[in-house]
Design a protein that fits this description.
This protein has 195 residues and is of the alpha+beta class. Helix content is 19%, strand content 32%. It is built from 6 helices and 8 strands. Strands 1, 2, 3, 4, 5, 6, 7 and 8 form an 8-stranded antiparallel beta sheet that branches. A hairpin with a 7-residue loop joins β4 and β5. The longest helix is centred in the N-terminal third of the chain and has 8 residues. It binds a DNA duplex (13 and 13 nucleotides) through β3, β4 and α5.
DNA sequence: TAAGGGATATGCT
DNA sequence: GCATATCCCTTAT
């Protein structure tokens, strides 16, 4: 059901692929929003030039060194929040950035927060999904594997699968480019941010 | 294609 | 201290 700490303690590239198709659930005072993960990106180790950790262990990268199954939320470009899940063992800097979701529950709330009715534009980007799910710095460091957490990841339920089955779709695509080493997305999904 | 915006890190003085 | 470059993006043009 809910993804355990053990799930996040494995090698990051394995977690990356396994996260495609999982459900991210955000519970806030406004209500519940959730979506199926259709795009993600891995950052692992100090040798990964795309990772904050490549510039040393600093205040900004500190969360990456922490224990797995915690949310790492940060601000970029002065206005956008990005949501990562910390992976691997404490002391090794690694995380998976969640880049796009297929909206599942709380669409009306997402539309309100995103100020658009376009379903394809609600969660098709790492900062868009944070806005749609109301993820900001207040959630930095929270556990994503505790039942009481405002932010959790789960296996999809049977009911979800009945509603919209991902299984028939093409498997994940992997993109390697520039210094973004590992990006995985659901090939053919209209909800991804990759062109 | 470019502007928007703030936190962070670095490299000065 | 302060100045500056950078940044895992989005929106509007």
């Amino acid at each position: 059901m809910m993804l355990s700490v053990a799930f996040y303690s494995r090698p990051t590239l394995q977690i990356l692929e396994d996260l495609i198709g999982k459900v991210l659930i955000r519970k806030s005072g406004d209500g519940l929003t959730s979506g199926i993960i259709v795009e993600a990106e891995a950052y692992r180790g100090q040798d990964d030039p795309a990772s904050f950790a490549s510039r040393g262990r600093t205040k900004r990268s500190e969360m990456l060194y922490g224990p797995p199954a915690r949310a790492f939320v940060y601000l970029t470009y002065g206005m956008h929040h990005l949501f990562n899940v910390v992976t691997e063992q404490e002391g090794f800097p690694a995380a998976v950035l969640i880049r796009a979701l297929e909206p599942l529950e709380g669409m009306a709330l997402m539309q309100q927060r995103r100020k658009t009715d376009d379903v394809l534009n609600l969660c098709s980007g790492p900062a868009k999904l944070c806005q749609a799910l109301d993820i900001d710095l207040a959630l930095n460091g929270v556990s994503v594997s505790s039942p009481r957490s405002p932010l959790i990841l789960i296996e999809r339920t049977n009911e979800d699968e009945k509603r919209k089955d991902l299984a028939w779709r093409p498997r994940v695509g992997i993109r390697e480019g520039r210094d973004r080493l590992w990006r995985v997305y659901l090939k053919g999904s209209p909800f991804v941010s990759v062109k």
